[in-house]
Fold:
Amino acid sequence: MTASRFELVQIGDATLYRGDCREVLAAIRSVDVVVTDPPYDVTPTSITHYSNPGMIKAGWMGTSYPANHGKMFQVPEFGDWMGVVFESCAADADAYFMSNDKVLMDMRSAAASAGWKFHNLLVWQKPVGIPNRWYFKDCEFALYMWRGKAKTIRQPSSCQTFRAGHVRDRRHVSQKPVELIAHYVANSSDLGDLVLDPFMGVGTTGVACARLGRRFVGIEIDADYFRIACERIEAAYDQGDLFAAEPRTECQAELFEGVDQ
Structure:
């Protein structure tokens, strides 16, 4: 494999590849932490869910909601890429794989088969739920995994649940808030560590790394998303203040409440 097979862009400490991560990752090693929102099937949404009486029609969704049939983009099998991601990592790496409730068990099984060990199930709690007749969907999840020797996170008082709002100026259909991704990056890496996102999308993990002083490798197969990722990461570096304050810890203040000293 040669680098000429892929489009390569270097922006600050971010190395961005446009290509298939299963091919690009063959040349990447010693990754300290993986933070990624891989493609997966979503729960099909019917317009009747949104139009029924009692359904909220406000917030980031506006007054209408696009129905889908569980497919927003091409979804490779988890086992097709989980192993090559594992092999690209350092001996004691951490990993955060975003997921929903529909595919959570399948993703965890594929991760375990690749060699990842399960640490914790983390929750992104959204301010507004997606309409559904069987409980509104107001959460997404992250499988927090590790390989080798388990390391303590940098803010051990962090809770499983992290509250963050939706992205209002979305450039990607499943774009995650920078605040959420930065929370995971900051907790499992130090300044100068190498962070990987093999499904970069529009570059949210890269933006978080630029702000936090981490090196970044991002891979995206879609040309339009790749272009947007380059623009967003370059803008993050151009802001000048790369070392933003560490993301908040939700329940730190209440950690010892009611405990005898």
